[in-house]
Amino acid sequence: MALAFDEFGRPFIIIREQEQKARVRGIEAQKANIMAAKAVARILRTSLGPKGMDKMLQSPDGDVTISNDGATILEQMDVDNQIGKLMVELSRSQDYEIGDGTTGVVVTAGALLEQAELLLDRGIHPIRIAEGYEMASKIAVEHLSNIATKFEFSSTNIEPLVQTCMTTLSSKIVSRCKRKLAEIAVKAVLAVADLERRDVNLDLIKVEGKVGGKLEDTELIEGIIVDKDMSHPQMPKRIENAKIAILTCPFEPPKPKTKHKVDIDTVEKFESLREQERKYFDEMVQLCKDAGATLVICQWGFDDEANHLLMNRGLPAVRWVGGVELELIAIATGGRIVPRFQELTPDKLGNAGLVREKSFGTTKDRMLYIEQCSNSRAVTIFIRGGKGSDPLVTEGLNWSSDCNRSYVPFGLVT
Question: What domains appear along the chain, each with residue ranges and CATH number?
């Protein structure tokens, strides 16, 4: 499509292959839009319900995703039609607001439009049809309010929440062990929920997945899991009553801001430089030891010299921890993120009852568990499973959001 001007300076549009294009107006345009929406709904219709079939989606890069979640399917579909894109937005908004029913809302919209097409054939104006659907929705909501039953729950009686969560998982790939996964999701939400204010901060729930093991190995950790290990293999793998220093400053000598060059032509100069570096490292480690830290978690890396010195001084360390994970660790342990070594004081250290490194099977995969934290309101759902047809690694995030958000409202109505 291009913009051109005639001899009077008036713009007009030139469309490629214009002779093959045609503008549709009136009832034909409305039917064409309805047809596009029905096509999208027809794709998702077979995925609805407990016996719904899964869809295998292949991306342009060749990655394969297996899912029956409507939002996931529509997100990965290449939809060009504008009405089809509206259906994708409908599913996305349903997922954002409720967290469940993404397939049902698209299928329902397609069915309503299918019935609207019959009304259009009878000569009823589209505005009148829309008004009728609006009146019908009010009557339906009122009827649902009349027949609804309210289930009370508490921190000691979570069975109503578990039953609700199992309902949302019945149509998912994970339905074969939905009872355990539902209990994990409910306990995770209740751990971070404020029952008095009826508020839930789902950002405090971290979802971590690791390929391997069985789906039944999925567990809820009352703390934080970091996909890292100790920076030195000889550092202790288990630390009890840990005092954690959370640092965003690296274990390395300060670098000049301008361009610089160092000429080393004698052994004495090299030894002097090495001694100066060791002095910097030694001072940094001593500041951590003086503050009482028994574990250092650093956002940046450090070289072998610093790593060796940390091991010799008996100070375990973890490097290259992401910023989001640092914030969660600080929330869970009650510590403060420290930007400079000179600002590290005992009151800024985090507390954890147990920090342990765990390895998985015969692989070299290792992860760091930070448990028994002073503030247990930050939890981690650790998902195991095969990659591909035996999920939850491909559907882990969808599963967690479906479970978490489906029963967040504290007036449980079925």
Answer: 20-147 (1.10.560.10), 148-222+376-414 (3.30.260.10), 235-351 (3.50.7.10)
